[in-house]
Design brief:
Elements: E1 4-7, E2 10-13, E3 18-24, E4 33-39, E5 46-51, E6 58-60, E7 68-73, E8 78-83, E9 92-99, E10 113-114, E11 118-123
Parallel strand pairs: 2-11
Antiparallel strand pairs: 1-3, 3-8, 4-5, 4-9, 5-6, 7-8, 9-10, 9-11
Length: 124
């Protein structure tokens, strides 16, 4: 089993920045690609970005490309989501997730483990 815990959420003004962290338990963190998703009230869970097991490859949703950056530190079992130029549309609960598959996935159903989420609120 893998346990994931997000932190770093909060309230910021439009144009501001925030960095989310996801701490993972277990000895096999490097065996998982790590994704970030978000979910606004009344909406489906939405792909934000994903980083490969080694951290060499990343993929992002068009809505955040150029503004958000995913990184990971396998030695510390931690993945990060740096969010810049935040917009009110970014307001959501943000989740990290672990995927044991061989392909970088944008689909929530393909991820094996999920954190509990952290709230991000962006005001105009």
């Amino acid at each position: 089993q893998v346990q994931l815990v997000e932190s770093g959420g909060g309230s910021v003004q439009a144009g501001g920045s925030l960095r989310l962290s996801c701490a993972a338990s277990g000895r096999t963190f490097s065996s998982y690609a790590m994704g970030w998703f978000r979910q606004a009230p009344g909406k489906e869970r939405e792909f934000v970005g994903v980083i490969s097991r080694s951290g060499v490859s990343t993929a992002y949703a068009d809505s955040v490309k150029g503004r958000f950056t995913i990184s990971r530190n396998n030695a510390e079992n931690t993945v990060y989501l740096q969010m810049n130029s935040l917009k009110p549309e970014d307001t959501a609960v943000y989740y990290c997730a672990a995927d044991s598959g061989r392909i970088l996935s944008r689909t929530p159903g393909e991820y094996d483990y999920w954190g509990q989420g952290t709230q991000v609120t962006v005001s105009s």
